[in-house]
Design brief:
Elements (H helix, E strand, L loop, with lengths): L3 E7 L6 H11 L12 H11 L1 E7 L8 H14 L3 E6 L6 H14 L3 E4 L1 H4 L9 H7 L5 E3 L11 H10 L5 E3 H4 L16 E4 L9 H11 L4 E2 L9 H9 L5 H15 L4
Parallel strand pairs: 1-2, 2-3, 3-4, 4-5, 5-6, 6-7, 7-8
Helix pairs in contact: 4-6
């Protein structure tokens, strides 16, 4: 059995999980997709049967006042579930003192990264208002960015590439192969050593041939397995990776070794 880390998981309190899952599916016009039980207990139970050892968990604040409660919730889940690796949320408009305090406090609590979602949070990746976040994250935490959406220019791949160049010490993870539904725009990442990618919400839309071509073009050492739970069923997403045609060595890199190397996890 392979060692597996799911590098892209959304979690919510049980009291709102059904509503939150419905909202995210509505945002992506995914109403006709097979339903997924979005509860944390279901995630852990199903993942355990498949051999998933760790999960990168996060949620996104859509207003300033949500930042601390969401991060407190993520931290509480990290305490309850040692297999959870927390990524904190931040929000445009936080002043530098607030950014420094939140990053420092959460870093000390064991958070390993930051999740930003330009299309949910309504900001351009390359907006100067985000620069303080990028500046202070550079020395402490990688940032996982939602990237790509054909309905918006907020998260175009070239904007993430611009930030990666401006902040070379910032580790950037471009979700969805670095550009959901904008996979023909990914050449802007070539040569950027600080940009990585996850496989979430992508393999259902690309042929194996195209997926493999992109992975090897940008470097198989740069890809992390991710499911985008509860958008997708973890078993279905794992099967898609297993059936890509990767060698055992490269498959293990994608399933866990790349992430463990980048995040210095034993």
């Amino acid at each position: 059995m392979y060692e597996i880390i799911d590098a892209h998981v959304h979690i919510y309190p049980d009291s709102i999980v059904d509503k939150a899952t419905a909202n995210i599916r509505n945002f992506y016009n995914a109403k006709n997709m097979p339903s997924v039980d979005g509860h944390t207990s279901s995630l852990i139970q199903n993942g355990r049967m498949l051999g998933v050892q760790k999960y990168i968990v996060h949620s996104c604040a859509t207003s300033l006042h949500q930042v601390k409660p969401i991060n407190d919730f993520i931290y509480s889940q990290m305490q309850l579930h040692p297999e959870f690796i927390g990524f904190m949320t931040l929000y445009p408009g936080m002043n530098e003192e607030e950014i420094i305090d939140e990053i420092s406090n959460r870093y000390n609590q064991g958070f390993k990264g930051i999740k930003l979602h330009p299309d949910f949070q309504k900001f351009n990746i390359d907006d100067e208002v985000l620069y303080p976040i990028y500046k202070y994250a550079s020395s402490k935490m990688p940032i996982l960015f939602h990237v790509g959406d054909p309905r918006s220019d907020l998260s175009r791949p070239y904007k993430l590439a611009k930030i990666a160049k401006m902040f070379p010490n910032l580790t950037c993870i471009g979700a969805h192969f670095g550009g959901w539904y904008r996979w023909d725009e990914l050449d802007c990442y070539l040569g950027l050593d600080n940009v990585y990618f996850d496989t979430s919400s992508t393999l259902a839309f690309l042929s194996n041939e195209k997926a493999l071509k992109l992975m090897y073009k940008h470097g198989i050492d740069k890809f992390f397995f991710g499911t985008d739970f509860p958008m997708w069923d973890i078993k279905i997403e794992l099967d898609r990776v297993l059936n890509l045609g990767l060698s055992d060595v490269d498959l293990q890199k994608v399933l866990s070794k790349n992430f463990k190397r980048v995040f210095n996890i034993d």
